[in-house]
Write a structure and sequence with these properties.
Largest sheet: 6 strands, antiparallel
Oligomer: single chain
Strand content: over 45%
Mean pLDDT: 91
Distance between the termini: 54 Å
Radius of gyration: 24 Å
CATH class of the domain at 376-526: Mainly Beta
Number of strands: 36
Helix content: under 10%
Structural class: mainly beta
Shape: globular
CATH architecture of the domain at 376-526: Sandwich
Length: 528
Amino acid sequence: MQVLRMVPLLITALLMETATSQETSMKIELDVNHLDRLTRANMRVAAKQASVDSDPYKPIFHIMPKSGGCGDPNGPVYFNGKYHMFYQHAPEFEWGVPVEKWEEWQGTYNFTGWGHASSEDLVYWEHEPIALMPELGSYDPNYCASGSTVIDDDGIPTIFYTAAEPQTQCIARSQDPNLRWWLKDENNPIIFEPDIPGFRKGGFRDPFLWRDGTTWHMILCGALYEVGGMAVHFKSENLTDWEYAGAFAKGMGEHCIAWECPNFIRFDNMGMLIVSPLFDNLQDTNHAPRGSVVYTIAPYSDNGSFTPGEWKSIDIGGPNNFYATQCLQTPDGRWLLWGMNLGGGSQDHHWTINLSLPRVLTLRQDGLLGQEPPVELQELRRSHWGEKDLIMGGEYLLDIKSNTFEIMVEIELGNANIVGIDLRASEDFTNKVRIAFDVKDSILHINEHHMPFELLEGEDCLRLHAFVDRSVVEVFINRRECGTVQPFHNIDDKSIRLFSDGGTAHIRSVDVWEIGSIWKKPSSNTLQ
């Protein structure tokens, strides 16, 4: 039966309140057509879950949908005692649909909405029903694209997302304590692309919000001809009425055609702007038009404008491995960042892409950015293997094999020219992920990716802290650099070794922990 569009329905849902363990009656306002769309999308996800779960390359401790395509992390928020992570989700994702068939194909299955997972502790997560889906014939016919989630003055969780096409900004709100049901605002879209001289049309998306005093700020993706990327800036006192406030920041030159997924966070009187830039002169690369995610840290004093300083890459692995970040401030004041790990999956198993591990961002006393995994992830540790005080000249094979583990190595460089570790390696080490520090030339390598690197004053060793999750490897270097790569060679390649070249190095310690799944919290008597 055809359902009339935009017909509001009041449903009474009996929800189990976690805090009280009592059944409570509440009313949630939903849109009938959107509810129907969500139901069909969730059924599609469930139908393909078994295929995804059977894929030996599927990560076990990275957030991703049960099935279908994943994309940018969206609107992480802490509410009612839980962390909620949303993400771009294409539940009807199919491999190999050609561009010329998209219009025909979306007549049956339209594209990307907001998937949802929740956690009480940042460690173990639960899949939730899809939060938002686009609706054919409406203002969001193809995408409920990336955005943010904030809590308004009345305590109501509020999503800001980009509808497309055309790209406009929209609102959805939830009265559900578990954030499973959302109602799109009847006044959507609330913001249209402003008439900005020299603005590159069609690149107006990815709202990110924060608050200074009573004023809400929103920055969005944009670009100006001959200038480069632009963080398009709006202000509001009530989250409903928005005023265009100009360029929050801009730059990178005429070849930069967008600053996707802009994020802005505060460290006291300093601000950090993070963007995922697009360029029109990368045709000869394997990642065009994406550039590496970059950040800049500079003074900020609540005046609503920001002058970027030096831009630096936030992930050595580049835009094919890490892109489109989102940040969240935890109740204890820490800033967490997620990105999406592009790629992954196979045509036989109905999934692609997953979210990175969360990173704790800090502004160090030396002015550099600190990046570390949150301490909560130690809860995932299972069996342990370790050694201390090894003098290494050449190769040292570890007496453990795994493709789901955490490894922490502290290396005093000695007189070695190159030191590092090989992970996810075949028996003969022809296939591997190599993390290597070229001491002589001051270069850090992660497979084919590299960057300048040297030990700083006060750093007396190289500290490599890596997480291997089947087809994803993320490594933190000296608590200040990070790199992501995605090995899709033989899943049975599980060997691990340390190495030095051109001299000897001192291994202070090497610790390896098997890591458990984030989707199933074990009972206490199963932990080792």
